[in-house]
Each structure stands twice: as C-alpha cells, then as structure tokens.
Queue: 2 jobs
Job 1
Amino acid sequence: MRWVALLAAVAGHCLAAESPYPSPKAINSSTLLVIGDDALSGPEQLLVGTLQGITSRARPLVFRNSTGGARLWLAELQQTWGVSVESVPSVEALLKRSRPAFEGGYVLCNASSGDSVLAAVTASSLLGAVAVDASLQTVADSAGLEQVFDARNQTSMSVIRLLNGTSSGAVLSSRVAVLQAPSKLCCLWDYALFATAGAWYDPSMSDPTSRAILDSMQPGWALLGWGGSEKQTVTAASTRAGWVNAADWARNLAPLAGFRAAEPMAQPNALPPSLPPAPARKHTVAFLMTDGDNLQWLLNDFATGPAWWGSPQRGTVPMGWTLSAALPRVAAPVATMLYGQATVRSGPGSACDVFVAGPSGAGYAYPDLMGGEALATFAAASRTAARAAGLGVVNVLGSTYSAAAADAMAEGMDGVLWYEFDPYDGLHGSVSFSSQGVPVVGARFMLWEGYDTPESIAAKVATLSTDPTSPEAYSLVVVHAWSSNVTQAAMTAKLLEAQSVDVVCPDELVSRVRAFVRHA
Ligand SMILES: *[C@@H]1O[C@H](CO)[C@@H](O)[C@H](O)[C@H]1NC(C)=O
Ligand SMILES: *[C@@H]1O[C@H](CO)[C@@H](O)[C@H](O)[C@H]1NC(C)=O
Ligand SMILES: *[C@@H]1O[C@H](CO)[C@@H](O)[C@H](O)[C@H]1NC(C)=O
Ligand SMILES: *[C@@H]1O[C@H](CO)[C@@H](O)[C@H](O)[C@H]1NC(C)=O
Ligand SMILES: *[C@@H]1O[C@H](CO)[C@@H](O)[C@H](O)[C@H]1NC(C)=O
Ligand SMILES: *[C@@H]1O[C@H](CO)[C@@H](O)[C@H](O)[C@H]1NC(C)=O
C-alpha cells in the first residue's frame, strides 16, 4: 500500500499539466444501449445516470435519448462514429442487459433529500455502485443487485469520512469534483462516477464540505457542475488552481467522454499561411459569441437554437464562436459535429464560422487570480487543450486585466481575446503584445442588452481609425448569447459593410493585428 501511495504521489506531481479528465479503459464503442429519458422519473434518472457513469469507466455503454441535444449526439455517433444502437425499454431491462459490464451493487438513498442524493452519488463513486431510491429498491433487487451501503441518512461529508481511502472504498479523484444542486436528479451524476469524483453542493463555496473537497484538489483540476453565483464559484476554483466546466444540465457526458477523435482535431477553417498585404485604410471588425465554455449549453440547445448555431443567418456573416477547449476530452462528438457543419471561408470577406478556445482556456477561470505556479499550470493546460481541439486563439475572461496573466495565456497561442468580468469590453479595444509578440486584444463593443446595438456600433466605428498600423483600427465585438444573437451580428455586419469596414472572423482579426499593428 505504501509503495502504491508513493507512486501515486510522484505520478500525481508529474501529471499536473496533463488533462484532469479521465478516459475509459477502452476508447470508443461500436454499440450503445439506449433508453428513452423523457419518460423517466427523477429517481430513475439518478439510477440510470449512475449506471452510465460506472459502466463508462470501461467503455461507453449506456446512452439516454431525450428531447434536448441527446438526439443530435446519437445521430452523430451513428453517422460519423459508426455506432449502432440497441433500444432498451425500461430501467429494469437496462439493469439486466448491462450485466456483466456492471457487477457492482447499489447504494440505497432518499431521492427527496438533497443530502442523501449527494451522499449516495459520492458513495457510489467510491464503491462502484449505482444509486437507488427506496422506491426503486425492488427493481434493483429483482435485477440481482445487492445493497452495499445505506445513504438515506448520510451526507457527502459523512460518506467521505466513512469510505474515502478505506479498505472498502476507492480514493476520491483529486483532479475532478462535481458541484451540483441535488434537485437536478437528471444530470451530471454519470460524470461524477466516471471520474470517481466527490459530489457536493454549497453556493457559498466555504462550508466544511467545500473546504474538504477544495483542499484535496491538485493544481490543474476541473470543477464540473455549477454553483450559486458565477463569480464566487469561479473565484473559488481559480484561487485553488482549478477551473470550472459548467455542466449542470448535462446528460450523457460520461459516455460521450469515452469517444475520442484523433488529436489534434482540425477545425475546418485554417487561415492561409500568408495574409494579403495590409488593406488600405480600412477598419476591421470581428464578432465573437459568448459562453461556449458552457458544456451543458453545447449539449442541449446551442446547436439548434435560432439565436445561436441554429440561426438561419449563420453562414451569411463572419462569426466567431467560443468553444470549450475541454471538448475533445469530454464530448468529442460535439466537436466533430460542429466542425463538420462550420461555414468554411471561401475568400476575402466571405462568411465563416471560426471557433476560439474559452473562456478562459481549459475551462472557466480568472487567471489574474492565480499565483505563479497555478497560472503556469492553467496556461499550460489551456494551451494543450486548445491545440488538441484545433483552436489557436483563446478568449480569456479575467476578473480584471493582468499583464502577467495575459502573457502566460498567450504563450504558444496565436492570439488572446481578453474580456473583463464586468463589463466584458472594459479594455475598450486596447491592444498589447505578449513578451513573445502574441497579440492580446481587448473587446471594444458589446452586442448585449443595455450596451451597444447594431446602429450604435456602426456609428462609433465610423469615427474610429482606418489606419491598419493603429490598434484603433480593430474592433472585437462581444455577442452576448443570452441577450443578443447571430441576427444582431448579421445586422451589424450589413451596416458596417455599407461603410466599407472589413468584417472578418476573429482569427483573421488577430493575424491582421499581429502583422500590421506597430509594436516594439
Ligand atoms: C430518440 O428519440 C427520438 C425522438 O423521441 C426518436 O425519433 C429517435 O428514434 C430516438 N433514437 C433512438 C436511437 O432511440
Ligand atoms: C426523505 O427525505 C425527505 C426530505 O428530507 C423527508 O421528508 C422524508 O421523510 C425522507 N424519507 C425517508 C423514508 O426517510
Ligand atoms: C434516519 O435518522 C432518523 C433520525 O435519527 C431515524 O429516526 C431514522 O430511523 C433513520 N433512518 C435510516 C434509514 O437510517
Ligand atoms: C480522500 O482520501 C485521500 C487519500 O487518503 C486524501 O488524500 C484526500 O484528501 C481525501 N479526500 C477528501 C475530500 O477528503
Ligand atoms: C475513435 O473513433 C474516431 C472516429 O471514428 C477515430 O477517429 C479514432 O481514431 C477512434 N479512436 C480509437 C482509439 O479507436
Ligand atoms: C435577436 O435579438 C434581438 C434583440 O435582443 C431580438 O429582438 C430577436 O428576437 C432575437 N432573435 C433571435 C432569433 O433570437
């Protein structure tokens, strides 16, 4: 035991810059058992979710079909990844059908009690079991499962004390933790089991359970889920050398994480190696949609929503899209589908869909709140993840601008698009260059309720520089996913093009800044 612990400690130390996201023993699957999710009760979703998580440790096996995005990923898996599906009609049939891939027992819980749900998920994670509400106990019994733990009166913390690192339990992951409101019985528990992660919920991020879990994490860890307050949750992760992958409404993340494309993945829109000469007296504008770090949005209605990827105007305008750099490790089929559908640039001034990593890189963190080593770990993890995803430009959302953080995040990247937390355009379009000469471009305008409109942006751009050697000749426009949309970007582009402004995708804006703006 001592040697194992020592090796783990040494390996853990070396691992810090590597991906925190686990892989199954075997990548990809040729067959999935598919159960309809829409008709399941909350306790059934909890049971099926934990079954997905535990079976996914070996290879993806169980998939839930639902009216959200799940249908898209099933279709992508069938069409592009060569997966065939076998429909399973009920939870009981699924439990029976998934043996012998799952040989564990069950943790009894009370799905009406948040404490008990979190305790049951954490115990299932440690014991390799599924979580079963008392109302489903006969279903579990008749499928031949045995009760291995009673979590009806437990909490996440009491389970950690009783089971973590003991002879009966595994050791909780120090690279992934799951923060999830236990009322969301539908979602994300699969990933907790897949990662052998602890699950808890504390909007304050400061109760004793938060402290125990946060203190047990190694630099370069990922918090999956969501908390009470964005700023508080992301600050808690950032100050402990971690980052957040918003995933609270994610279904099927564990099985999706078991499908892996060859890396680096290639987004279809590489810029030509040499740019045309500096445009004569032109202002350059690029749009960038916010919130692509949000895994649950990507998995649910991002791809179909008419405000976003599903917009009828997509493909008529040069559009930048933030995208989680973690996708190749947590849901590669989402990336293969989006990359396959992206509008490919056909020449100067043509429409395009170009993806940018972030915010803020490997996940959502405020790099300006990170100390030296933590910052280096986050920057390295972000660079590795972004490059694996085929993303050269990174969008950083800082709590406030820090030259040291911008410099670290720029290393090895083609460009940094920097947002301030409040408001995103707090840098007013200012441009700087990292010590390696990588452009760091602040947002200048926001298509965002209460901020700019297509008309106000067109009017302001008309007063700005058209000298391509000046940073004042470039405008990055934030497109707020929740109050603006592709239609607004297309309207703005139309007004700007009438003023002979060049509207390009964000990678091209970055390469113009790098090539043409005067700097020391
Ligand atoms: C998933 O659900 C949709 C809609 O209910 C259905 O059309 C589709 O056939 C289902 N796919 C599978 C593989 O069960
Ligand atoms: C389950 O939890 C709910 C909410 O805390 C509680 O009201 C109920 O009595 C519990 N059920 C059992 C069987 O303990
Ligand atoms: C849970 O705790 C309560 C109060 O201590 C007790 O009455 C009840 O029997 C316990 N239930 C279980 C399932 O252990
Ligand atoms: C779980 O156990 C391991 C090994 O003993 C320990 O390092 C870690 O801090 C524990 N996790 C928590 C959340 O207490
Ligand atoms: C998994 O499938 C993808 C898509 O078919 C393929 O590109 C990749 O090489 C496969 N990975 C492994 C390890 O088989
Ligand atoms: C786009 O945003 C505008 C302004 O908020 C709104 O009026 C319009 O309905 C939105 N369109 C779509 C397709 O979301």
Job 2
Amino acid sequence: MKKPFVTKAQIEEIVKKYPTPFHIYDEKGIIENAKAVYDAFSWNKGFREYFAVKANPNPVLLDILRSVGCGFDCSSMTELMLSSAVGASGEEIMFSSNDTPAEEFVYADKINAIINLDDFTHIEFLEKTIGKIPETISCRYNPGGVFQMSNGIMDNPGDAKYGMTKDQLIEGFKILKEKGAKRFGIHAFLASNTVTNEYYPQLAGQLFELAVELKEKTGAHITFINLSGGVGIPYKPDQKGNDIAEIGKGVHEQYDKILVPAGMDDVAIYTEMGRFMMAPYGALVTKAIHEKHIYKEYIGVDACAVNLMRPAMYGAYHHITVLGKENAPLDHVYDVTGSLCENNDKFAIERSLPEIEKGDYLFIHDTGAHGYSMGYNYNGKLKSAELLLKQDGSVELIRRAETPKDYFATLDCLSVSAKLNKIIDEEK
Ligand SMILES: *Cc1c(COP(=O)(O)O)cnc(C)c1O
C-alpha cells in the first residue's frame, strides 16, 4: 500500500493559497533518504552522491540535497548554471553529458566541474575547445551486449548511444595520461529504474574489474568509480523497494573482493542517482473537474501530461490515491485524463479506484523525479507550481506556476507581442 505524505485536510488548506495542479515535495522524506544513502556508503572514504539535476532541477531541492553532502550531476548548460548558483563548484559537480556542445565544455571547465567524457573523439574535441586536458578526468564505459542479472535481461547497452568501448577506454586513458591527466574516473549507466538490490553490486563488479585492467594496461591512477543512476523505486504498490543499505553492502563486498587485492583501496565510489533520491518524495496534486460516461468511464482532472509526462511517454504507472478516500473500496474503474488533444494524455487507464466525485483531490504518487522537469508546453498548456512541505509542516512556494506571459515571452521579437500583452492585461 502506498501512503500519501499529505492528508486531505492539509491539501484543503494549501489550495486556499496555491490552486491545483501542483507538485509538492516532502522535505523530511528527501533528507531521511539522502542520509540513508550516505550511511549505506559510509564504508567508502570518498563517497559522494551527485544528484542527477535533470530529475528535478529546483534550486531549493538542490540546496536541501547539498546540505546532506550531495554534489550535482549535470548534462547541460542550464543544469551547470543552476548547480553553480546554489554554490556548488569544482569536484562537487560532475558533468556527464553526451553529444556535448563546445560552450558547455567551456563553462564546465570554467567552474572546474569534473568532466566525464562520453566518447573517444571528445578527448580531442575537449582539448581543442578548452585548450588543455584537465588533471581530473572521467570516461564513460559501454560494454555493449545486454546487461543481465539473475532475474533476466535488464537493459540493452549495445543499443545505447552512450559511452566508449573497452578498447577505446584503454587507448583513451593512455592518450589522456600523455596529455597531462593525473586522476581518472570511470562511469557507466547500464540499466534504468532497477528494482533489485543486485544492480549496483553487479555493475560495481564489472567496473572494478575494468578499473584493475585499465590500471594494469595504462598505468592510470583511478581515483573514482561512478556507478551513475538507475536505482529504481517501486512505482506499483505490490513492488518491493530497494534496500539502499543492502546495496551499499553489496558494493562493499565487490570492492573488498576486486579492488583491495589489486592495491586500489583508495578509490572513491560516486553515484548519480536521480529517481531514487527524489521520486517518492514528490506528488502531483490535481482536482477532478469532470466525469464522462461513454464507452468507458472517465475522470477529467485539472493536470495533464504537460505536468507529468511519464504515463503518456512510456505508459509508466503512477499510483493514485484519492485524498480522503484512502480506505474506500476500489469499486470503480476509470481512465483518469488530462485535457490535451492527445488520447495518450491519461494518468491512469482502467484503474480500479474509489468512486470519484468532482472536487476530489487526486494524489499522483512518485513525481519527485522526471516529473515536473520532463514537462513541456504542448497545446499551450502551462506548467504548474512546485511547493515544498517543510519539516515543520509549513508549505513554501518554490516555483510559481507559469502564466500566459511566460508562454508568450519568446515572441518578444514580434510586433504581435504588444497585442498579446494587452490581451493578458485585459484578462487579469
Ligand atoms: C538520467 C541520468 C542519471 C539519473 O538516472 P536515474 O534513473 O534518475 O537515477 C544519472 N546519470 C546520468 C548520466 C543520467 O543521464
């Protein structure tokens, strides 16, 4: 059973000030979980979690994570800028990009972020772009083939655009070393949203063996190994979540088995989790505004795929709790829809739910990662506000909702802009 972190009574208070729809985040949950991550890896001296900023680029949330010790994993100019704005710099920022524009390497170098190269050709591109090879450098690995665990194939690295082959890594490390690199890292992201404690330990085993081989063949001093993201969460109520303490222990065993005997007991473990750090601690709160009875039963809500794209994009399951009806029987079957002119704009399809009346608040679970941040503006729909439920129970607005003015802002190069502003003013 999945339990909302707010009650109906709390939401009824909040909507007096901040109308639905909005994403709301649970500060307490974020902090407790981040601390559990640090506990799980406390055996490793240099451990750091670089929160994947793309999962939720709100600076207030970044600040909270930073207060627990997290750094930031960025893959674009604006993510780098945000990380810099909340005070992170140098080794606190990992730049794990791909197909990277030159100006992003320039800015990453300017703020001294650790650069994680996605491709062999980026060695030359980086050197040409920033005029040197940084002393600390990381390379992303792609082993090809399929990534398999005891319960079957988890993902398909051979089809993924990311990373370098092993031969490219060996050659790349030699070249980087010649050009002045002193501290090396390796990185790999081989499976997404894994709901098994085996993923990190198995990935770590592969990367640790690779690190030993790279050290032997190139003489490079490997100072960190980045397990990247991919640790999942139980979106469905019958799924069992990952146990981060078990995962940390599993990585520790591999470390003692492979790295320590090779004399590599100074290697820091890095992670770049997004989903695991934030998804369960966010929710999209939306109000039922219509019901429709045709060949199926529909509930129309005031949010749409613009606010949460995962169901439309991947058919992803997001659990829904009707606030105030937590214990009511699930004796109705609904499609819960948004208002986009796209039939995939559905938060749930044929979902068993309690009877929903207009005005009910739906708590759509697990939107803290890849939720707001994946949003877009299709149909000219505007993105929602973000709220923070603080540890003391108060609520803070951490991003206002978009207005038509925001939506039209980039038309300011056209004369119609004045007319639009006039219409906006008249509608106020
Ligand atoms: C998306 C991404 C992550 C985070 O992935 P999660 O599945 O949210 O943990 C980490 N590193 C890189 C390079 C990514 O692209």
